[in-house]
Amino acid sequence: MKKSRVLAVALAGLFAASTAFAASQFIMGTGGTSGTYYPLGGAISQIITDHSGGKVACVAQATGASVENLNLLNAGDIDLALVQNDTADYAKRGVMFFKAPLANVTGICRIYPEHIQVAVNADSAIKSLEDFKGKNISVGAPGSGNEANARQIFGEIGLFDGTNYVGFTPHFLSYAEATSHFKDRLIDGFTFTTGAPNSGIQEIVTTQPLRFLEIKDKLRDDIIAKYPFFAPALIEKGTYSGLDHDVETIAVQACLVARRDMSEDEAYAVTKAIFENLEALGNAHAKGKNLTLEHALDGMTLDIHPGALKYYKEVGLVK
After folding, report:
1. For residue 169, is it within any domain?
2. Based on the structure, what is the number of domains in the chain?
3. Which of 8, 126, 243, 316 sits 20 to 30 Å CA-CA off 292?
4. pLDDT tens for residues 112-121?
């Protein structure tokens, strides 16, 4: 009896090891550890690992976010990535941060809106974006989608000339660095393109009240007309401690993308694992609650991977 139990345990261990060995080992590019992408990517990776029928084992990797993720994906250094839909559009067309179109990137799904969040200290004299003249402002990590959005927004008010920021000192900081610099009063304000709430901003408001600057009316309309991947959005009151009113702004969309040369079976397994476990994803990370099958392709600026498309056809989202 004892020998039987030992043999059964040994066989079970051998089976588990062989299953793990058989699974494709995927890396998902996310973002900085203080942003939304890193913990969300970890949650999605776990869902894929647990629910792809042993086909895919995925781990999340901290990166410089959208631009770096797309370059890593195109080179085959990672397999999946979280990126902004605007940055994906640049990669597809070979503009902005990309000298040529990236051929090895394709879409899986849209996940949630990423708000443009521009903030200063509540006691600051800065009341609008134009008041950033002469100030020290974090515009995002070098090569990030955040920094691309800063260029677009400041370009509309004459604070970016197509090559350089004009009239203020830009600081190219990650979310974590911007959070630290802002708390130490080394910068006067920051622009974050990220899901709301953002953990770095939550950390700041525990000790320093913030004023969020709005992007609305003509400025909002002009930006959206020029860059249609933006959409109107609200940072709702109560999102952060002390925020007692809605803040008008704009948003891009966070999307999950993949290597184009990923096999159809693998992409299908990834897509199915995610959409058949949405409740678990929502429980693992709040932004997972924004992902629905109905809106899976909203704002997607890349071609959809054939494996993902197979799943969408199977469930009737795409004919």
Report:
1. yes
2. 2
3. 243
4. 988 999 999 9
